[in-house]
Amino acid sequence: MKKFTVIGVYTDNGQVFANTEEAENGEQAIQASAAAVAEAGTDAEIIVAIEGEHFEGDTLTFPGECAVDVRTILEGI
Question: Which domain of life is it from (predicted)?
Answer without folding.
Answer: Bacteria
